[in-house]
């Protein structure tokens, strides 16, 4: 098949078609959704609400949303706070940060419709029958111009999921979608794993799947099949071929184990769809080992500085990975309680300092930070000493090398110019208050955010950029959103595009004759 690179591993080899006689059951529906994450469930509910008969296949025991926030360019909640972003400016900056390798049509769909989709989700989740989910915005954001982040990452509290004692987050808007989908007759087939797509001629007409008991089923879809099965991060083999850097991180934070195995990518490929050019973009956070990184002095296990510490979370993660080490050290002194807040107006964001809510949150909670420092010292992921040499010895770093780096960095701070990496003078704050601390930090891969080529109607495309009839792709299975890197211009934009695109595609299914 011309859409398959002969250098790829065994994962790319199409399986033999399943004999129809082997199916224990054959089902029929109008819309088949494979994957019940935020993109799949949003589409399923939107399609059902638009009058479609919907069936959802999900290999886990229930729908799943493992993120903390959902990004939108605007929303009625944001407008109530006086926060209004310009969609045109967001689109231009998004495209620039993706080195112009993203699909501008997809970017425009998100910036033009994310407010509509978020309001749709909030209207449902805030209904009294679901406990009136409380919404807020993530307050932690990089405020400097270089990597500026906009407010728009919505977080959710006090909904039916949290009240049941389970993980809340974006599940607080997904649970109402799930319940409403059930009311509208949507069929959910849990613990059911898609094996391959079914075709009649050039058209994808359904999917074959295996149930938990091992029996095989065929599900035929009149209007189309949506693949929203997540990324490839959990498959080392696929990552090595399509995104090698994803295998170089300290931790793969794919949760729960067994997700992000690339089932949708493979099935689409075998059905004639094409993948975007490798290497795929990644989503990384510097949250492996310990979360807070700050922005003072980063050194490798050899005691050497390796980057401008004034960077956003994806940039810090990539910087760490490129050292060739699984983890590095962030160094700070005992005046952290006064020095970290000094840096927040110039940078900030997740894992720079602490996460907090826009409304009612504290940008820097000294007591909480102190507890985390004590916990990391006890766990051995942080060390403390009265001198740089003694600190280096506890770090297991060559004392001479570290002392030289430490002294040189403080010299840059005193003269107000970083001769090595050009860090802004506002952030050149000397480390001069013993005792000193060093904490291990590493990059965690959340997911790989590249995949199957699609057009502006979310139809899968072949190697000639022609639609594969009957096949649609969303979420981390799709290509085109990012091109080279995950842009933190608007935190939560991956889940935000999942919500928005799912909403739009569901409406489109409903409009089909």
How would you describe this protein?
The mean pLDDT is 96. This protein has three domains: 10-14 and 26-66 and 171-210 and 220-282 and 450-511, 3-Layer(bba) Sandwich (FAD/NAD(P)-binding domain), CATH 3.50.50.60; 70-163, no CATH class; 283-445, Succinate dehydrogenase/fumarate reductase flavoprotein, catalytic domain (Flavocytochrome C3, Chain A, domain 1, Alpha-Beta Complex), CATH 3.90.700.10. By secondary structure, it is of the alpha/beta class. It has helices spanning 38-49, 76-80, 87-97, 104-125, 160-163, 171-183, 236-242, 263-270, 313-322, 336-343, 366-379, 388-395, 399-415, 493-511; strands spanning 23-34, 54-58, 70-71, 134-137, 153-157, 187-190, 192-200, 203-211, 216-227, 251-252, 282-288, 297-299, 327-333, 382-385, 436-448, 459-461, 467-473. The protein is globular and about 75 Å long. The protein is built from 14 helices and 17 strands. It starts with 22 loop residues before the first strand and ends with a helix. The strands form three sheets. Strands 1, 2, 6, 7, 8, 9, 16 and 17 form an eight-stranded mixed sheet that branches. Strands 10, 11, 12, 13, 14 and 15 form a six-stranded mixed sheet that branches. The longest helix has 22 residues, at 104-125. β7 and β8 form a beta hairpin.
């Amino acid at each position: 098949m011309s859409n398959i690179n002969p250098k790829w591993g065994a994962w790319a080899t199409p399986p033999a078609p399943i004999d129809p006689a082997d199916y224990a059951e054959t089902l029929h529906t109008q819309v088949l959704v494979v994957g019940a994450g935020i993109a799949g469930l949003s589409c399923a509910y939107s399609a059902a609400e638009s009058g479609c008969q919907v069936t959802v296949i999900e290999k886990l025991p229930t729908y799943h949303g493992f993120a903390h926030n959902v990004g939108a360019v605007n929303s009625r909640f944001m407008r109530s706070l006086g926060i209004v972003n310009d969609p045109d400016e967001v689109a231009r900056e998004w495209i620039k940060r993706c080195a112009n390798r993203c699909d501008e049509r997809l970017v425009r769909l998100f910036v033009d419709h994310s407010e509509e989709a978020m309001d749709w989700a909030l209207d449902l989740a805030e209904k009294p029958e679901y406990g009136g989910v409380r919404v807020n915005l993530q307050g932690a954001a990089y405020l400097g111009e270089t990597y500026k982040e906009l407010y728009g990452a919505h977080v959710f509290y006090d909904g039916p999921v949290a009240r049941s004692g389970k993980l809340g987050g974006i599940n607080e808007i997904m649970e109402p979608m799930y319940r409403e989908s059930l009311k509208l007759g949507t069929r959910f087939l849990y613990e059911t794993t898609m094996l391959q797509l079914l075709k009649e001629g050039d058209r994808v007409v359904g999917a074959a799947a295996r149930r938990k008991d091992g029996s095989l089923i065929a599900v035929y879809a009149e209007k189309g099949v949506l693949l929203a099965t997540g990324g490839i991060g959990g498959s080392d083999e696929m990552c090595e071929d399509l995104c090698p850097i994803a295998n170089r991180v300290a931790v793969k934070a794919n949760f729960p184990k067994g997700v992000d195995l690339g089932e949708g990518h493979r099935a689409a490929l075998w059905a004639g769809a094409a993948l975007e050019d490798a290497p795929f973009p990644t989503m990384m956070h510097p949250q492996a080992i310990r979360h807070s990184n700050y922005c003072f002095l980063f050194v490798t296990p050899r005691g050497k500085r390796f980057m401008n510490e004034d960077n956003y979370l994806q940039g810090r993660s990539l910087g760490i990975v490129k050292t060739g080490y699984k983890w590095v050290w962030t160094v700070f002194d005992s005046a952290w309680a006064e020095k970290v807040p000094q840096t927040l107006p110039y940078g900030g964001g997740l894992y720079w300092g602490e996460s907090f809510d826009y409304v009612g949150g504290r940008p820097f909670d000294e007591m909480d930070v102190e507890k985390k420092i004590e916990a990391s010292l006890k766990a051995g992921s942080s060390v403390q000493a009265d001198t740089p040499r003694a600190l280096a010895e506890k770090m297991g770093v060559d004392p001479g090398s570290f002392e030289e780096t430490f002294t040189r960095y403080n010299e840059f701070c005193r003269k107000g110019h970083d001769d090595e990496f050009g860090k802004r003078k506002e952030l050149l704050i000397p480390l001069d208050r013993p005792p000193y601390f060093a904490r291990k930090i590493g990059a965690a891969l959340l997911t790989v955010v590249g995949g199957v080529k699609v057009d502006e109607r979310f139809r899968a495309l072949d190697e000639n950029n022609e639609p594969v009839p009957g096949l649609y792709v969303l979420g981390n299975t799709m290509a085109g959103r990012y091109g080279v890197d995950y842009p933190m211009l608007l935190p939560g934009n991956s889940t935000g595009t999942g919500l928005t695109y799912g909403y739009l595609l569901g409406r489109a299914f409903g409009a089909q004759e």
